[in-house]
Model the fold of this input.
Amino acid sequence: MFDKTTVRGLIALAFVVSVVLFSPQLQADVVLPTPARMQADAPGATSYQIAFVTSDGIAAYPSSNITDYNNFVAAEASNDSVLASLGVSWHAIASTLTVNANTNAPSSSSIPVYNTAGQLLTTEGLYSGNGLSALLNGTQYGSVLDTPVYTGSGPDGTELAHFYGLGSSGVARGISNGSGTAWISNYISYGPVNPLPIYGLSSPITVSTPEPSTFALLAAGAIGLIGYTWRRRKRAA
Done:
């Protein structure tokens, strides 16, 4: 049916496919939005942001220094190869006694925000008060974590009641699987010395020109191999 050269070629192609499908180095749990997906969600947008909930926790008292929380989410993001490869800065979606979340981790209607599962969170900005389109419960590894989260913030991204920011004895918190605005504000934690996760938000990520997918390249290779075999058999006949 096929000569030895063709059989060897098909075996080699099967090996490449198996490497692509099963090699852990090529698999990633974090899903980034494709340019096509972005244009469907936010036509004309040239950049996007990624938000995640940290898999580890941090105490929200006694520090009211926003730098401590920014450094924490940046360290968490650096633990994942996909997020680390983006080369962006990371900021805590958190309000302290002196800095508001909407200033520290700005989000606007011109830049869509996605979670680490590649799901659109909002095209209106995180602090619009209209809630999110999906849950902000994806960690920096792409896994799901339903948990209370220290935010110190109200739905508009400012310190809740000017009294419950991180560093206070009572800190506003959200919940990562909360609907509406509960993701950022649904409860007050008193004596917030017990570590809880917080949210991180990237700086804007510029959309790159899409490249052919690995599977498209493999399909093209398979078609080329079949065509080559057909031409050889035709010449032989």
